[in-house]
Design brief:
InterPro entries: Class_I_gatase-like. The chain is an alpha/beta fold. Helix 1 packs antiparallel against helix 2 (38-53) and helix 2 runs antiparallel to helix 14 (673-692).
Length: 693
């Protein structure tokens, strides 16, 4: 209950001020002139003003409100290490019991998980405080290992908001002075040129970051690329170390870096790290050797020149040596084409060699073509767009290239019109699968016809397209470490010109070229896996239908066999739930791919040692405290006034705010109507009598 004095004016305050000012001025004038009855009139004016102001006595009936204490429970991944979960549950039970014994205290609880940043302690508590009135907030008790990702630095502690308006106490799980070996990637590139070494900076720690042990201890670090054979190296503990890696393929290169277990281990999770480097080609060098000029000669040149990453060397034979004409010598080129330099000294520097409608005409000696064979066997790429008269003695089928060609001529050229078609293998091969307007199996493709092709017979490789009379049109083959593509027609330019509707000429030639250069996305036999929305999506490309199931290994070592669902385009798929964060492995028996789920070696598990230092600034700003449960035990709970300390050696305090709500209000006027009337009339009569004497 509370009693107070208030006013309830009968008229506006501005009107009371005007009337009061005028009355006081007149009364003052009368007093100055010593007029009879001046004091009586002054008392009358005061009484009238008091009636207008209407003073009242207000009596409130109040109900005390309980204060609200918030218990924040850290359930992040680092809290599952050792006995921390058991410590948290035991401390939570004790807090609930002791808080229940405190009068006028309401208890609320909030669970704190983890995200990509780590453990969001401050943001989670701020959200929980959103519906707690500030005048009832008694304080926060945090049960955690002390690892928080969003505690602001002391100079910007205002960003913590309402958390610092009441005591913030940390009851830490774990042990003080814990040690744990961990691997940290300090610097790693996101992109790198294929075939060029790049540095990765790492550091191995057993204690504080950068702490060097007195005995100069070393640890063994292993590096494995794309699930391959790991390479080991000894590195000093506590010092930054540079590892040099060389991406060997275009696209993602997944590097798994691991360190052996240390003398003190809390968890092995932070002993591993995954770095993904996207390999890119700096410049692609292509050697295009054109024979007899024809309508499609510029098709290759236009496609290759349109790619800014391609350096094209175009060797065009406009006139064979044996041709005699009357062209003056001064009009001929005096700069000899560097044939020897290209085909002997620098052939290995090219990523792709293309022979477009080339025949033996005495330009390239046999030993130059033999160098091309060696180039392919060592990993080079060769593409041949066959010339007419494939069965002629001067064709490439009769040259030094013959041993690596995937076909041989059967007879004269086929000069009838035909529509290119995909073979069953072609519908599954990444070069030709899903080409636009290819049609469904058994249906004719929606492409324009070609008018001529070489009559050849395949002897190796994969026939992915057929032409006239069902003869092989496009053959893709592997030779040694390299690849050979053979297109048995020079009529692809008809598609570019839109003949009978045209066709996907540019896309087909681009895919052939990139497959020849071993583009990872165009591999016939390929295993791919990636993380998406908490699952691992698996893709197994194969030329053979119904590929066998794959084996999936979780970060904890659990293995399971997953069947694949085959599709007509040559890709079999499966989807697996990825409950565990970490490095997953998928294997088809021959290939192994690694998938990083979550942030492997990320912030949450990067440093799992229990600590008070991270929360200390927050506790100091709120007059709270931090302590280890294991060392000091559970503290007592007390209620403290806002101006008193909120923690002691063996106790922590919750603020006693004294908040209340008003349940009823009783108001009594000091000048009720009858009393006011009698007072005014009495003073009026008194003034009249005084003045009448």
């Amino acid at each position: 209950m509370s009693i107070g004095f208030e006013t309830a004016p009968l008229v506006a305050w501005w009107l009371i001020a005007i009337l009061g000012g005028a009355a006081l001025a007149l009364s003052g004038l009368a007093l100055w002139r010593r007029s009879r009855g001046a004091w009586a009139r002054l008392c009358l004016v005061a009484a009238l003003l008091a009636v207008l102001i209407n003073p009242i006595v207000s009596e409130e009936t109040r109900k005390g409100l309980s204060d609200i204490a918030l218990i924040a429970i850290d359930r992040s991944a680092s809290q599952r290490i050792g006995t921390r979960t058991a410590e948290t549950d035991a401390a939570l039970a004790t807090l609930r019991e002791r808080l229940a014994r405190l009068p006028d205290v309401e208890v609320r609880e909030v669970q704190i998980g983890s995200d990509q940043r780590g453990t969001p302690v401050v943001s989670t508590i701020q959200q929980a405080l959103g519906d707690i009135p500030r005048d009832r907030f008694a304080g926060v008790i945090l049960l955690s290992d002390g690892r928080a990702a969003d505690v602001p630095p002391p100079e910007t502690m205002a960003a913590a908001g309402a958390i610092t308006t009441a005591p913030f106490h940390l009851l830490a799980t774990g042990q003080p002075g814990e040690r744990d070996r961990r691997l940290t990637v300090l610097e790693a590139p996101s992109y790198a040129v294929v075939g060029k070494p790049v540095p990765i900076r790492i550091r191995v720690d057993d204690g504080e970051p950068g702490e060097r042990p007195a005995d100069g201890a070393q640890a063994t670090v292993t590096l494995a690329a794309d699930g391959g054979i790991p390479v080991a190296r000894r590195v000093p503990v506590g010092e930054p170390v540079v590892l040099v890696v060389t991406p060997d393929k275009r696209g993602p290169n997944v590097l798994e870096i691991s360190v052996e277990a240390g003398p003190a281990e809390l968890t092995p999770v932070n002993n591993d790290a995954v770095v993904t480097i996207n390999g890119i080609r700096d410049r692609l060098r292509v050697l295009l050797v054109s024979g007899e000029p024809h309508m499609g000669e510029r098709a290759w040149r236009n496609i290759l020149k349109s790619d800014p990453s391609v350096d094209l060397v175009h060797f065009t034979i406009l006139r064979p040596p044996q041709k005699q004409d009357a062209t003056p010598v001064v009009e001929l080129s005096l700069i000899a084409f560097p044939t020897r330099e290209l085909f002997e000294e620098k052939i290995g520097e090219f990523d792709l060699v293309i022979f477009d409608r080339y025949r033996q005409r005495g330009i390239l000696p046999a030993n130059y073509l033999a160098n091309v064979v060696t180039y392919v066997e060592n990993g080079g790429a060769l593409m041949i767009a066959a010339s007419p008269e494939a069965d002629a003695p001067l064709s490439l089928y009769e040259s030094a290239l013959a041993p690596i060609l995937p076909a041989r001529p059967r007879g004269p050229d086929l000069t009838q019109a035909f529509r290119p078609a995909l073979t069953p293998e072609g519908r599954r091969h990444p070069v030709t699968a899903l080409l636009p307007n290819a049609g469904k199996p058994g249906e004719e493709a929606g492409w324009g016809r070609w008018l001529r092709m070489s009559d050849i017979e395949a002897r190796s490789g994969n026939v992915v397209m057929t032409g006239a009379q069902g003869r092989p049109l496009l053959i893709l083959d592997r030779v040694g470490k390299g690849r050979v593509a053979l297109l048995a027609s020079d009529e692809a330019w008809l598609w570019q010109r839109g003949f009978e509707g045209g066709g996907p000429q540019a896309e087909l030639l681009r895919r052939i070229a990139h497959w020849s250069m071993q583009e990872p996305d165009l591999e016939e036999e390929r295993l791919r896996a990636y993380a998406h929305q908490g699952r691992i999506e698996i893709e197994r490309r194969s030329l053979k239908p119904q590929p066998p199931p794959v084996e999936v290994e979780s970060p904890s070592g659990a293995r399971r066999t997953i069947p694949l669902e085959d599709h007509p385009d040559g890709v079999a798929t499966a989807s697996v739930g990825a409950e565990e964060p970490g490095l997953w492995r998928v294997s088809d028996g021959t290939r192994v791919v690694t998938v990083a789920v979550g942030e492997v070696g990320g912030r949450e598990m990067a440093d799992v040692r229990a600590t008070l230092g991270v929360i200390d600034p927050l506790a100091e700003a709120s007059d709270g405290s931090t302590r280890f449960i294991s060392g000091e035990g559970m503290p007592d709970l007390r209620r403290v006034r806002p101006d008193r300390p909120a923690a002691g050696a063996s106790w922590i305090g919750l603020r006693q705010n004294g908040a209340y709500e008003v349940t009823a209000v009783t108001q009594v006027s000091l000048l009720p109507a009858v009393l006011a009337l009698l007072l005014v009339l009495g003073l009026l009569v008194g003034a009249w009598l005084r003045e009448g004497r």
